[in-house]
Amino acid sequence: MAIKQLTIFVENKQGTIVDVTDTLAQHNVNIRALSIAETEDFGVLRLIVNDEATAEKVLAEEGYLIKVTEVVGVKIGDAPGKLSAALGVLDKADINVEYLYAFMARTEKHAYVVLRVEDNAEAEAALEGAGFHLITNADINKL
């Protein structure tokens, strides 16, 4: 049930991100979530998109180094402590979260959180067992 995330390695220079987003827009790929981490020389751009296959193809054709990673997506209620509750489930299951980022859904009642963990199936089972709703690629496509 994991969702696919594109990790794109980009130069840390003006215009690089707009080049990526323009390329995706020209091919009708809609960005659903975005995270970027940077160093002095390069950036790591992580994207959840509505059409991973097209995005991967067109960005590779433009010369970008891309890695597709399966990540866990979980719906979190919009109230204090909800993220902590989800992370607590994973902690109790001895699952380390390597990184996470969030994005708002089209309703104001919840957000989606993308989690990178070592074992997606184990994390998904723990979260579902605790009553959390997991995000699927179909959910991403509906946004």
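(the above was protein one; protein two follows)
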Amino acid sequence: MSEQIFVTHSSMPPYEEYCNEIKSIWETVQLTNGGPIHNRFKDAVREYLKVQHLELFVNGHLALYCALKALKLSGEIITTPFTFASTTNAIVQAGCTPVFCDVKPDYTIDEEKIEALITEKTTAILGVHVYGNICNVEKIDAIAKKHGLRAIYDAAHAFGVQYKGRGIADFGDVSMLSFHATKVFHTIEGGCVCFHDEALKKELTLQRNFGVDGETLQIFGTNAKMNEFQAAMGICNLRHIDDELALRAAVFKRYSENLQSAKGIKILKDQENVKRNFAYYPILVDPESFGVTRDDLIQKLQKNGIYARKYFYPLTSENKAFPNGLAEKTPVAKQDSERVLCLPMYAHLKLSDVDRICRILLQK
């Protein structure tokens, strides 16, 4: 059997480069709590993302949770069920109620269906940029402004994505990015919140540091600080991000060349005015047209040592803690979750392996 291929493979900087970056930690003996590497990385990543303000966190989930708490939200937040569990979990853990809106063919929240879901309890709209595809940020921001709501974006998949030359994390009131090891860019674990209102800086800092301000306990916060070793990994990986994206682009292009004419398989299409980051390669399998189901394909790939992922399945609205039937209110998202399959996608995936994966997929 050929070498096993997994759905993701973390990119790493040269070993010596990382060792050199962390060497100063043995001199400062400051491992966390906003050390010099943390602060240097914060400035570097803020400049790369083209955002006004940015704060770092130990992971993307706590970054989103702290952002919701910092905004002092309550009541209902309109969001999408076609996302990783973290998005919905953060809403619930922050004391709010998710209201699920269906998605469009590009997997992002359907902005045309948002206003019908707004009630007197609605306080925010939380869109999710999916697979590097972005929400209609202009319309969502306009809806939020019209109704006096907060516009929030889960941009976990969207590091480096630009819309009309503007960093995607610069839209809305806040955007969260994940720096998890499986992402385009990583700090092992990690994340950040990007925002415009400078007053949020103090609130976010309190939220991630137990609610402590000097010797005063201001709020009930949590512990969500990024440490120096994570920040050092971020500094190293940021140096190589353009090469990373170029390699991913080549893999993405090869998949598309192999699959664009396949009957019954839908692939990602470019969005107008969007510079994508080639984060994932999902396909949507129509069992009637293609002849087999998504789950059949997974088994076939696994028999050949290739491990794809049903991402996202199930919908977050299908959490057992929710009432039954929520998923039926978002039929597009429900069908997508039962048909989507993310193929192996990472910078150093060999193009010959991409060809082999596609041959196996298309064999009848």
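Reviewer note on protein two: The mean pLDDT is 97.
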